[in-house]
Here is the input.
Amino acid sequence: MKAMYPGSFDPITLGHLDVIKRVSKMVDELYVVVMINPLKNYFFSLEERMRLIEEATKEIGNVKVDKHEGLLVEYAKKNGINVVVRGLRAITDFEYELQMANANRKLFPGLETVFLMTDEKYSFISSTLVKEVAMLGGDISPWVPKVVLEAFKEKVRR
Here is the structure.
């Protein structure tokens, strides 16, 4: 079975990585898909985000990192994927994710969305929080893979 875990991953956090590791044990192939949203301003470029994910997941054999611009259902159809994984941190995430899951099912009948609760120790971490703390000089090391920590240090030094 193939599944996809879409997101901006700007940057990938330990919460994302927790979901990836757990889902990778349930499926044959897991596509971590960096979605491109032209309405968003990203801290890391598309190439940087993909590289950071590849580095953070290199020990997980069945993870493939890819990118997509457009509707995720089109990516799923093109790649023969019928399971979308979404991580939930808190009840506040559920309402938005439920709307998206229902819309995706209307656009692609048979596409299932599986919600996976993030480990409670990561339940407050978001990419936005990580960026804000990092930009203000705070320690993000408990929240991101080492490769992301190094990438922040390098980018802020420039």
